[in-house]
Amino acid sequence: MELLHGNAIVGQSGGPTTAINATLAGVISGAMNADCIDKVYGMRNGIDGLLADRVVLLNELFTERADFERLKRTPAAALGSCRKKLPKEEDKDYEATFERIIEIFKKYDIRYFFYIGGNDSMDTVAKLSKYTTECGYEVRVIGVPKTIDNDLLGTDHTPGFGSAAKYISVTMQELLRDTAVYTVKAVTVVEIMGRDAGWLTASSELGRVLGLPSPDLVYLPERDFNMDEFFEDLSAALEKKPNIVVAVSEGLRMADGTFVGESAQSGAVDAFGHKYLSGTGKALELAIKEKLGCKVRSIELNLSQRCAAHIASKCDIEESFGVGSAAVSAAVQGVSREMMVILRDNDPGEPYSSVYGHMDIDLIANKTKFVPKHFINERGNHVTDECLNYILPLIKGECYPEYKDGLPVFATI
After folding, report:
1. Domain annotation covers residue 116
2. Do 14 and 61 fall into the same domain?
3. CB of 332 within 8 A of CB of 139?
């Protein structure tokens, strides 16, 4: 196959993670080492920044191994992010938007496009892949997975999930010990991110398969939430011990589709039509107070779940860098219109290992990978050991940032 010569550009999109910059480091490193790629550019604030020609030359910023190592251990999106939805063919601004992208591509001789993101970002990859193919502009478009929600199809798991799961499971170990010191009846509700998929909430139970404390009740959005059953579960738990910890996904819904926390939400939506969620824990706190009258508090782990670099998973950071580098290798070899995936490469009972592959973007974009039914118990208030054993290898190992004067030193672009 004849090599495609030109320049590469990379962007980050959607919610940041602890590991998204490790993937960025992998793409930059891989592109700088590719003989057919001359310059590596970065989009500031994703596709939004590309359309505005906010582009930075990355070759000049990353010249030493230490530069990449620092970037790998830096949380959030060093290039900035966005939640811009590219128009559909029937939209009036469709041609103008995509013609503008091609104009920028030609200006910088872009022949390799890498977009690091989650479900909505893969929508961008799919649309751009389709347009560039139809208009005859030769560019290889690759989606690189990122999301703490672990809800992308095709990949065994997503970069960013392992570190978020590690933060949640460790924080839960600390909260369980803190809440267990009194004899007064009390309920603590911990709200965890997850609009449609409950992978992160499932990780709150990891202590159980290691013989450690774990939440007394766990509820995922894959099951309809029933308030009467919830109070039955709570009452049964409180009969066994005074201090109860409940882990809930922010996206819990009733059977009619209503979010449990909807009364505490603004109703505002993002560019992709998703409601901004929060308030599930607070809504349950108020309901428990009214129904049971016991001491109750709610805790929303919030943004810390996706930016806690001080407790990142080594497995996650290494795989995130690896999948970024593998994306460049795949593109150089002619792959396009695909998303990179991580595949588990071991039989059950053997030490965990993984390999990188790629999958047609149209099979992934705008779809969701849910926690499967057999990963949730029959009552719907816990996950199974099989679920936890799937997650456990992904949180293994520590990857601490560099520290100076007691605080971490992070990379800035």
Report:
1. yes
2. yes
3. no
Distance of alpha carbon 253 from alpha carbon 224, whole angstroms: 6
Burial label for 172, CB within 10 Å (0-12, 13-18, 19+), is: buried
Instruction: Name the residues annotated as catalytic.
Output: 149
Distance, CA of 394 to CA of 54 (rounded, Å):
35
**Parent domain of 75:** 6-147+309-366+399-409
H helices then E strands: how many in the chain? Answer: 12, 13
Q: What is the pLDDT of residues 126-159, one digit of tens each?
A: 999 999 999 999 999 999 999 999 999 999 999 9
Q: d(Cα 38, Cα 31) in Å, to the nearest integer?
A: 8
Instruction: Please give the tally of structural domains in the chain.
Output: 2
Residue 386 belongs to some domain of the structure: no
Are 23 and 115 found together in one domain? yes
Q: pLDDT above 70 covers what percent of the chain?
A: 96
Question: How big is the CA angle at 286 (ends 284 and 290), to the nearest 5 degrees?
Answer: 115
Q: What is the pLDDT of residues 52-103, one digit of tens each?
A: 999 999 999 999 999 999 999 999 999 999 999 999 999 999 999 999 999 9
pLDDT tens by residue, 205-220: 999 999 999 999 999 9
Q: Tell if the pTM clears 0.85, that is, is over it.
A: yes
Compute the distance between CA of residue 336 and CA of residue 95 in angstroms, rounded to an integer.
22
Q: What is the DSSP string of 12-61?
A: E-SS--SSHHHHHHHHHHHHHT-TTEEEEEEETTHHHHHHTT-EEESTTT
Q: What angle do CA 131, 137, 140 make, to 5 degrees?
A: 80
In a domain, 324, yes or no: yes
Q: Are residues 80 and 20 in the same domain?
A: yes
Compute and round to an integer the Cα radius of gyration of the chain. 22
